[in-house]
Every structure is written in structure tokens, then in C-alpha cells.
Amino acid sequence: MNKKFKFLGTTFAASALLLAACGGGDGGGESSGEKTKEDFPYLSVVTGGTQGTYYPLGGTFANLITEETGIQTTAEVSQASAANMTALKDGNAEIAFVQTDVAFYATEGTFMFEDGAIEDISAIGALYPETIQIVTLENTGITSVEDLRGKKVSVGAPGSGTYANAEQILEIHGMTMDDVDAQALDFGESQESLQAGQIDAAFITSGTPTGAVEALNAVADVNIVPVTAEKAAELIEKYPYYAEDMVPSGTYGLTEDVPTVSVLAMLAVSNELPEDLVYEITAAIYGNTDQITHAKGAFIKAETALDGIGIDIHPGAQKYFDEQ
User: Fold this and answer.
1) What is the rounded CA–CA span in Å between residue 53 and residue 162?
2) Residue pair 42/71 in contact by the 8 Å Cβ criterion
3) Out of 4, 8, 38, 241, which could bridge 101 as a Cys pair, Cβ 3.0 to 4.6 Å?
4) Do 80 and 52 touch, CB atoms closer than 8 A?
5) For the chain, what is the radius of gyration of the CA atoms?
6) How far is Cα 117 from Cα 104, in angstroms, rounded to an integer?
7) What CA dihedral angle connects 210, 216, 218 and 220, to 10 degrees?
8) How high does pLDDT run on average in the chain?
9) Taking the model in full, what pTM does it have?
């Protein structure tokens, strides 16, 4: 439906330009061709799977945007970061959750975007740390990344942000995907497969606590494999968009903090959206953080929204943050 509205809008704009060229305009002025808020009767926010963090947050954001802009906004289930960038490019969504590293890859045309950079997107702002969680069960005996060698490991879908994280963490530990029996599973599938003993471990890149891991912990003893400070430093030196992080004691029943690394979650937007609309969208989210009930809402702040962003900021978002 998005494409339908965009097509109609484009057709109308093209007709107006043709009339002007034929002398149909009174003043002889030229149309800029830029879209206005009225060109967007509804907005789509692409998130991730229902067992992750993007989807529940996306529902909250959609409600806030609807209230602020008057435009009906819906949170959509998706295959997350990489797929979301493609959805923006193809006109199937206007707003997207994405990892900061994946947004950078998209605009640079690297990793999963080697077939072509996506140039018509920009950032609204950063949200919260996306923690790389290497999840296993106590009975597997896996206590280090090196122990994953030869094991059945869920690494996310090829081309996903989780897949890239898994590949880079294995690399820094002297391994490649060929050294594990890689399984392309989403978070919910990873939970079910770990519970059934069909896989040994799973990479899950998501804000903690993650629904899929909480569900797993309800029926089994969860263990999070650490990324040591030494290996984290090596990873950050090669891939600067990572940061040191930890899964706190008490999460998933853990009895101590587990060191790991993270990237950031952020919001990206199609450059088709006009400045005034993106300003309102930004204000809806960053001006109403007290209405975000998810635990990650505590990290969402206007004063840190531009930290770690590796792509251009949309002018509407930049205007909002400049005012703050």
C-alpha cells in the first residue's frame, strides 16, 4: 500500500510539472517535486521479530508518532536491520529500527550491501545499546567463544546484523563461520532449538533483557558466554562501532556480570519524508521518553541521540536536537 500512495503522489507531481511546462501555471513557477506531510496518509515502522526488543518498542513509538503527527502509524514485524534498510530503499516503510553498524554498511555499500549502497536514507537518532549475547545452556559445557568450534550455533540470517556480529566476533577469536555448524535462525527459533537440544548456542544481538532469552530461562538454566576485555579491545580496534558492554547479574538468573560487547540501536528514515514531519516524529519519541515503559526507554535521551551515528542525520531530526 505504501508503494501505491507513493506512486499516486509521484504521478500527481509529474502531471503538475507537465502542465507547468505547457504554460498551464499562472505564475510560470517551477515545482520543487518535494513531498509534503500530506503525501503520507499513514506511516510504517519496520522493527524485528516479536521475540526481540525492536517490536515492542516499535509499538510504543508508533502510538507516540500517531498522537504527535495525526498520521496513523503502525509497527510492522520484519527480519530486522538489513531487511529494514532494504524496506526503506524500496518504499515499503518510512521509518526503521537498525543497528548503527548495519546502517553504516548500507550507506557505504559494504558487507551485506556489497551489491549496492543505499543512499536515500538518513538517521533520526540513536536509542540504546544492542548487546551481543552468546546464549547457551549450563549443560552444554560451553564457557568461552573458543568452545563454539565444531558446535551447532545459531548466527542469525545471512545478511542480518546478528550474522555480521557473529562473523566478526568469531574472527577476533581466530575462527570463521566454517569453524562452526552455522544455523540461520531468528531469535524465537533459536530459543526453541536451544530448548530442544537441537543447537548448542545462539548469537542474539538485542537490548537486554531479550524476550526470547527470558522465555528460555523460564524452562532451562541459561548461560551467557563472555567476550573478554582483551578480545573486546581487539574487536573495537578493528571495528570502532563496537563498545564494551555487559549482561548484568540478575538478568536471566545470572549470578554475576558477564562481559561482552554491543553496537547501538538507532532509527533510520527515508529521505522522502519532509523536514517538518521528521521533526514531529523526532519530538514524538525523544520528547516523550517518560511514556516508554520498556526497560530500554531509560537509555533513550535527546542529549545522547547523536552519539555513535555513522550516517547523515535527517534535517528534521537535526533541527529538533539543535533546539534541545
Assistant:
1) 14
2) yes
3) 241
4) yes
5) 21
6) 10
7) -140
8) 89
9) 0.77
